[in-house]
Design goal:
With 395 residues, the chain is mainly alpha-helical. The chain folds into 2 domains: 1-47, Ubiquitin-like (UB roll); 153-395, Type II secretion system (T2SS), domain F (Receptor-associated Protein). It is 75% helix and 6% strand. Strands 2-1-3 form a 3-stranded antiparallel sheet, covered by helices on one side. β1 (2-9) and β2 form a beta hairpin. α15 packs antiparallel against α16. The longest helix is centred in the C-terminal third of the chain and has 57 residues, at 338-394.
Length: 395
């Protein structure tokens, strides 16, 4: 839904912003995350095009092209207008045109982007806002491009590692289904005259195969319904949180998920600190990246930092570090390069995660192939056992 939010901030006066949010509370939170004081929230109750197309705006490509034009010497307004003119995708062109219109009204880039949170997240807007204060917009764009590229690289490595096991499961499942639904019932016709001479396991397999063929359509419909229901449930935040809690409860996997979350947290926080944003506001902005359990710990750590404790002490006290991260945070505090150290922490743990994923897939793939081979082999052997026994009795 689209909400109109009247806000104030020092140096800007009273302004009206538009946010895409699920409810008024979420719209208010988005405004407060960007440092505004909310005066009133009103909504039309209608879904907007940007809400329906959430996540489709090519933010990295937009940043790369804007950076190239700025480095070529074009003014900001002319550079963004050029991006709108060359864009051929209607929804993307419409979004950039709206940003250009806000710039023509005299608003800063961060103010213009803040009105379209569906395309420009709060972290991106805050980075642009900090860059406007220091005058290094090109550096801010460069940092964001590198940040997002690194995050995408970690995500792509995990997706690539999961493709082969998924293919094995799909192919193995299809082969097993073919044997049960077609081959086993066909063999059952051969064994009809053998009666009780068929081994028990073979009889059970034949009955199962006949049942699968007889009720093929209901079984397929039930399988599709289960898949559809699972896909729908995974779209719900409550269901995703429940699945996440179950995964985190697995000892080895839970620790890896925690490390992955902390790496992404430190990378994002480091980017914000490098952009000149103070640590406490930066912590508030990156809190949404963490799992709810870690998010509550992060809020406690932020409270300690407000009270004057060091970042390393606060993070260690609430379990938001690893041994390597703790040492690097202390180095960052001594040298004054905290943002750089946090990005180094993220890089170290990203490489550690990549090595673990590679090791796990190398171990899991042969085990999965062995399990699929045993299942298919057992079906084939059980089908041929009556023939072997028949041949033995004839001798």
């Amino acid at each position: 839904m689209r909400f109109s939010v009247k806000v104030m901030r020092a140096g800007e006066g009273l302004i009206a912003l538009s946010f895409d949010a699920a409810d008024e509370v979420e719209a208010r939170r988005q405004a407060e995350t960007q440092g505004y004081r909310v005066l009133a929230v009103s909504g039309s109750g209608e879904r907007t095009a940007s809400t329906l197309r959430r996540g489709r705006f090519p933010l990295v490509l937009f940043s790369q092209e804007l950076l190239a034009l700025l480095k070529a010497g074009l003014p900001l307004l002319e550079a963004v207008a050029s991006l709108a003119e060359k864009e051929h995708r209607p929804e993307v062109k419409h979004m950039i045109d709206q940003v250009v219109a806000r710039l023509f009204e005299g608003r800063s880039l961060s103010q213009a982007l803040a009105q379209f949170p569906a395309a420009f997240p709060a972290l991106y807007v805050s980075s642009m806002q900090a860059a406007e204060r220091t005058g290094d917009l090109s550096q801010a764009l460069t940092r964001y491009i590198a940040y997002q590229t690194q995050l995408d690289g970690v995500r792509n490595r995990m997706i690539t590692a999961s493709i082969y096991p998924v293919l094995l499961l799909v192919v193995g499942g299809l082969v097993t289904l073919f044997l049960l639904a077609y081959v086993v019932p066909t063999f059952s016709q051969i064994f009809q005259g053998m009666g009780g001479d068929i081994p028990l396991l073979s009889r059970l397999l034949i009955k199962w195969g006949v049942a699968v063929r007889t009720h093929a359509l209901p079984l397929v419909a039930a399988a599709l319904a289960l898949l559809g229901g699972a896909a729908y449930l995974l779209q719900l935040p409550q269901a995703r949180r429940w699945v996440a809690r179950r995964l985190w409860a697995i000892p080895a996997l839970g620790e890896r998920l925690r490390t992955y979350q902390l790496a992404r947290f430190y990378r994002t926080l480091g980017m914000q600190l490098e952009g000149g944003i103070p640590v406490v506001p930066a912590l508030d902005m990156v809190a949404g990246l963490l799992d709810p359990a870690l998010r509550s710990l992060m809020h406690l750590a932020a409270a300690d930092i407000r009270e004057g404790k060091s970042i390393s002490q606060s993070m260690e006290a609430h379990g938001l570090t690893t041994p390597v991260a703790l040492r690097m945070l202390r180095v960052g505090e001594r040298t004054g390069r905290m943002g750089e150290m946090m990005e180094a922490i993220a890089g170290f743990h990203d490489e550690e995660m990549a090595r673990w994923v590679d090791w796990f897939t190398r171990l899991f793939e042969p085990i999965l192939m062995a399990i699929i081979g045993v299942v298919i082999g057992a079906i084939v052997v059980l089908m041929y056992m009556p023939i072997f026994e028949l041949a033995g009795s004839m001798r």
